[in-house]
Amino acid sequence: MPKKAAPTPPDAQADTAHQIWLAGLGAFSQAQKKGSEALQKMLQDGLDMQRQAQQTAEQKIADATAKMSAMAQQLAQGKTAMPKSGAPASPWDSLEGLFEQRVLQALARMGWPTPQEWQDLTERVAALEQQLQAKGRTAAPAKKPRSAKNARNG
Q1: Local structure of residue 8 (DSSP, 8 states)
Q2: Residue 35 is part of which domain span?
Q3: Is pLDDT larger for residue 111 or for residue 85?
């Protein structure tokens, strides 16, 4: 028959229980500390990711703004940057071409002239200005109209 272990004195049991309690508190403290450090690391990683995404978005907006400004200038000059025949270089190119086509179609529906019509109109105005200048050189200067006050007195 195996021998029974000798009973431990009550002070020894209390001391062991206290050590177990302190070990549990230490483990809890370390878990809190490491959890706090992990939370801080996740917060910093999230902040870094947000900054990077914001910078990327700002760059894309700046690029789109520059392209739209260039397109507006080309449209004002009567030139368009319509996509060339063949497959687009990237999905953004096809989206850009689609956007340009839709804008031109919307302007046409509102009665705006096409870029070619703008060019034709500009040429016609220039020709008319030349004709007026040519007639102005050959004709005598016109008399100034009399004001209403002078017309009554004269």
Answers
A1: P
A2: 15-56
A3: 111
